[in-house]
Amino acid sequence: NAGVTQTPKFQVLKTGQSMTLQCAQDMNHEYMSWYRQDPGMGLRLIHYSVGAGITDQGEVPNGYNVSRSTTEDFPLRLLSAAPSQTSVYFCASSKGLGETQYFGPGTRLLVL
Amino acid sequence: SQQGEEDPQALSIQEGENATMNCSYKTSINNLQWYRQNSGRGLVHLILIRSNEREKHSGRLRVTLDTSKKSSSLLITASRAADTASYFCATDAGQKLVFGTGTRLLVSP
Predict the structure, then answer these.
(1) Residues in chain A with pLDDT values less than 50
(2) Which residues pair with A47 in a beta bridge?
(3) Could A98 and B44 be called an inter-chain contact, meaning their C-beta atoms sit closer than 8 Å?
């Protein structure tokens, strides 16, 4: 099992560019989520999904889109990058909401 | 706003001492989880306690939950330098798992 994988590990964008952060899991987990972590802060929920075809907004969804066409993949799209989106992004998955979350290694994003 | 708030924000102790960190939350929960994060890395699950449980142990970890006070505590006994990390509580709020702001623990040899 690879667990939760995220690509890329590091990305630099210019303001206004768009990109997709990839997240995949091979544990057949239904629940997947995206968080961002800013220096010295906890994780803030961006979007989450309780199963294929179902997504919903978290605390800080503005500027981000997600889709869940398969159980395995949960990509996060930045529509028009802004410096405020400079952060570390973590993807996580679990069997269900009340179960252990497995985290990916993170993607460090710098928006200039 | 954050569902959970950890206290203290930072804690510095010597090896062999116990470390206690607290988490307060705002709404009713089904369960509460504690996670650990080493610098710059993904979070690792430590322990889950359900709302009908009051105390749970896992190795050197002891977690308590007081639903009447909407609070939880994580105790690490006989701490080691390798325990240096940030510790987060997470609560399920409806369909979402929401994390607190974390406690940074430094264990000095």
Answers:
(1) none
(2) A34, A57
(3) no
